Amino acid sequence: MKRQRGFTLIEVLVALVIVAIALGAGIKAAGALTNNAERLAEVSAAQWCAENLLTELRLTQQFPDIGESPFSCEQLGRSYAGKLRVGPTPNPLFRRVDADIANEQGQPVLTLSTIMGKF
After folding, report:
1. Which of 57, 73, 76, 53 is nearest to 65 (CA)?
2. Distance (Å, rounded) from C-alpha 54 to C-alpha 49?
3. CA 65 to chain centre
4. Is the pTM of this model over 0.85?
5. Is 58 left (phi over 0), alpha (psi -120 to 50) or beta?
6. Given CA atoms 76, 73, 104, 95 in this order, what sign does their dihedral have?
7. Separation of alpha carbons 49 and 119, rounded Å
8. DSSP, residue by residue, 11-57
9. Please, what are the averages of pLDDT over each run of 10 residues along the chain (119 residues)?
């Protein structure tokens, strides 16, 4: 009697389960990479907004008044709402300036801070 060679049904099913688990893990990793890339683009654009505003303040060479003021900007086709907060420091010749940036849904994205001196 000749013995048949090949895989049993159980062996084939185990191999399919292993392949399915590997593909599922790969899809999950690809989704995480996509989310990270989107987040990086959002944070980069928000940082450009904040840096542009702080650079504009430096170029005007005016000592900013203490308080808060809203602003908005658009980068990479996205709109960002921001709040500029100016506060005192222990040295009266300097002010702390914070630019808080939020996305279109109002969720905080980034805060960029600097110190500005009296010109």
Report:
1. 57
2. 9
3. 29
4. no
5. alpha
6. positive
7. 24
8. HHHHHHHHHHHHHHHHHHHHHHHHHHHHHHHHHHHHHHHHHHHHHHH
9. 77 93 92 90 92 92 91 89 94 94 90 90
